[in-house]
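Module 6 notes. Inverse folding takes a fixed backbone as the condition and produces residue identities as the prediction. Think of it as a translation problem where the source language is geometry and the target language is the twenty amino acids. Below is one complete input and output pair. Work through it position by position during the lab.
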């Protein structure tokens, strides 16, 4: 039986008899969780091991999610990255799940994905000038385009198809079987 190390919402299981180490992503993605995941993905890849991410997350911060995806992309240059959705892969967690090595993206039969356009949370009582608000809107538009490009890359669907779906449907809840049709997952088990 392996040793376990828990840090925030990440549990990493070390199995000396197995070639892969498991990185469990549970909970909201924030800077602390992202830092632990990025470091562990890099360590496993540089040691020649296979990266396996177990995901059950409501998503979280866009930029912390992008840092994890960048680490995964770097790791895929030297090893395979397996993703397994155990329950929920929402928002950024859906992008992380889709970023795994093709053919090694798994989801349990009763798992769900949630896709939506990026949004910003404003602090309570925050006051903005019209110029600041316009800047924020421009950033949101750019992030939405970036998200569509990422989904297009990982799913094989045209960027315009993804943008059209997100524009007309808002929050899109996708059960595992449909996620396979979307190209988000390769194997349902």
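Target side of the pair, the amino acids:
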């Amino acid at each position: 039986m392996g040793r376990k190390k828990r840090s925030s919402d990440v549990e990493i299981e070390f199995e000396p008899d197995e070639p892969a180490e498991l990185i469990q992503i549970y909970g909201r993605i924030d800077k602390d969780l992202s830092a632990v995941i990025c470091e562990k993905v890099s360590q496993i890849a540089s040691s020649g091991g296979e990266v396996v991410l177990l995901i059950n997350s409501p998503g979280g911060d866009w930029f912390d999610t992008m840092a994890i995806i960048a680490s995964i992309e770097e790791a895929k240059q030297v090893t395979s990255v397996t993703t397994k959705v155990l329950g929920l892969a929402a928002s950024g967690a859906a992008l992380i799940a889709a970023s795994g090595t093709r053919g090694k993206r798994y989801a349990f039969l009763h798992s769900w994905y949630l896709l939506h356009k990026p949004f910003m949370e404003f602090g309570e009582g925050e006051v903005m000038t019209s110029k600041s608000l316009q800047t924020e809107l421009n950033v949101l538009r750019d992030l939405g385009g970036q998200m569509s490009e990422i989904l297009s890359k990982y799913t094989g669907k045209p960027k315009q198809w993804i943008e059209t779906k997100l524009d007309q449907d808002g929050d899109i809840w996708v059960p595992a079987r449909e996620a396979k049709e979307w190209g988000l997952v390769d194997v349902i088990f």
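Reference fact for the lab report: The CA atoms of residues 47 and 79 lie 10 Å apart.
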